[in-house]
């Protein structure tokens, strides 16, 4: 039986009030997608609105390209899957072995506030299934609680750092800073040098610091399923 993993992508494309566009970060979909699918994992894509999720234009800059993103550019099967993501409200945790959230700035606006997403994460977690988040995606845990306590409380976590946010000059644009939120909600937050690969596993919860951590998060997820 092949394992099944649900990928949840943002549907949000406005970068605050800047007039610029955002969405999901290509590498954070591509690297984990291939790390898992090459090992026979079946991947389903979903987003709050369904259909084509917005891609952060900055993640398509030549400087942001990796082997995985170049492979995705030529992968019609994945591109078709992206055009037709399932609506988040229609997917159920019992149909999958784990859930993975790619980042990009988009999730800070929609998935962080999305009640369907919050419940889905609780359903996976309370049924002993791994939940994984990379870069800005740990931000979707902002309001996720189990038995009245924040899910991240007393858990070892990482996520996009305040200094990385400063580096992309969006500190004053984002609705909240991932590092600050994780600490405020009681997470035991750690990080390494900006833009270096770093992933932490705490039980069934896996978090990665930045785009470079995407594949590492997927590798840890593979071990748990």
UniProtKB/TrEMBL annotation:
Positions of region (Disordered): 44-73
Keywords: Glutamine amidotransferase, Lyase, Stress response
Pfam family, one: DJ-1_PfpI
Translocase is among the record's keywords: no
Domain of life where this protein originates: Bacteria
Residue ranges of domain DJ-1/PfpI in the record: 23-223
Keyword set includes Transmembrane helix: no
Family per record: Belongs to the peptidase C56 family. HSP31-like subfamily.
Protein name (record): Type 1 glutamine amidotransferase domain-containing protein
Species of the source: Chryseobacterium formosus
